[in-house]
Write a structure and sequence with these properties.
The protein is α+β, with helices and mostly antiparallel strands. 61% of the residues lie in helices and 13% in strands. The protein is built from three helices and three strands. Strand 2 and strand 3 (43-45) form a beta hairpin.
Length: 109
Amino acid sequence: MALKGPTEEEMRTVLMPLMLSGAKMLDRHCPKCGSPLFEKDGRVFCPICEHRAKQRKAEMEGIEERLMEKLNELANSMPEDLAELEKHLRVMEKIIELLERYRKLEGGE
């Protein structure tokens, strides 16, 4: 499924500044999103796909930070009741699994 081309906001915040910086808009389009390709300093690239990838990465980093905060919060508040402790530990295991999956997706650990 191909993503759609640049939104109006992306045209204002990504494409226009790029053109003003001296990048050259090419007559070819990105096979992934359909946006015009650009060339700058000998490099041909799709600024929209790069912009969206950066946004996704920032969103994922925010998720990782929230998961780590929750994990720390749970680790610092262990209940004494055995049944509650068991539930607590299961939740912590799930959070750790999610963090490991995220890191594998990002090419880390």
